[in-house]
Write a structure and sequence with these properties.
Elements (H helix, E strand, L loop, with lengths): L15 E5 L2 E4 L19 E7 L2 E7 L6 H17 L7 H6 L6 E3 L1 H16 L9 H4 L14 H8 L7 E5 L5 E5 L12 H15 L4 E6 L2 E6 L7 E6 L8 E7 L3 E6 L4 E3 L6 E3 L14 E8 L2 H14 L1 H9 L4 E7 L4 E3 L3 H4 L2 E3 L3
Antiparallel strand pairs: 1-2, 1-10, 3-4, 4-8, 5-7, 6-7, 8-9, 9-12, 10-11, 11-18, 12-15, 13-14, 15-16, 16-17
Helix pairs in contact: 1-6, 6-7, 7-8
Amino acid sequence: MKPLSRSRLLSVVISAWILSPALLLSGCGGNAASDQTGSGESGEPISVSSFQLDTIVTLRIYDSTDASLLDGALAVCDQYEELFSRTIETSDIYRLNHSRTYPVSVSDPTADLIGLGLEYCRITDGAFDLTIAPVAELWDFTSPDPDVPSPEDIREALAYVDWEQIIIEDGEEGSAFISLANPGAGIDLGAIAKGYIADRMKDYLIQNGVKSALIDLGGNILAVGSRPDQSPFVIGIQRPFADRNELCATIEVTDWSVVSSGIYERCFTDPDTGEFYHHILNPDTGYPYQNDLIQVTILSESSAVGDALSTSCYALGLEEGLDLINGLEDVYAIFITKDYRIHYSDGLTERFLVEEITE
């Protein structure tokens, strides 16, 4: 695996699950090896699971028996990972992060994705920041014995965090050159890349005639159409800090994306101080955001937009996050606060069928 983001930072681990009439499917479960199953008969999907993007990628196609479509979609995933990875030395992002302020010619998808990320940096006034990488590299939320970085190391890394130092220049024939004004800066696309890749996988499936499928990139859920009988897909939202099979709500979607950011997947408690730390880092302080939220779920037509907004809204907190979502068209949000209350953005319960599940 060539991890897209060892970014312990903005790389949000979603807690969405997919429910069918008799099946609960985990966004993070399944075999890590590529394993195609199913026949497409009797409404059962053909499916594949593979370890990519540093997570389990699962694809289910409900209206075709052509297994080559599964391979083709996973190839799309590989194609974009090789552009966006911070660790693959030939990737656009690796070359950019090691350019020492020299402009780097990047692919159109990389320029598009960085441009999208910068839009949310502006919208949130830097609460969402693509250049958080130097700080994020100090934190290891996957270690069996994680440490809190020293204040000195965090202060030094914060000097390189500033999204306004990303410079995009147009080249010939629509090409783009990107540079970082500060030689110590680094871009990490972990907060938006999975969503963008899911969107491109959906494009591939639609171009090849698929009208009913589910794409799950480690829990970033994207529906292609509806179920073969025209009924919507039912997505279950995991109850934070609970067993993976325990849900707090379900929501019906057709052709939409469901992306969540929460603080209960990549986290640890310092045994010396009892302080709780999670992976959504504040670009102003270098430490995890402190607010009353434990999870944000975004419903949108674009999974890349959902990815960016789920992190952005967590960073902004409940009130400012709701204000942001309520000011956007065709985007909805579910916020869960630390008292386990569920808060909906305007119009969500009118647009989607939601069922809350009480303990």
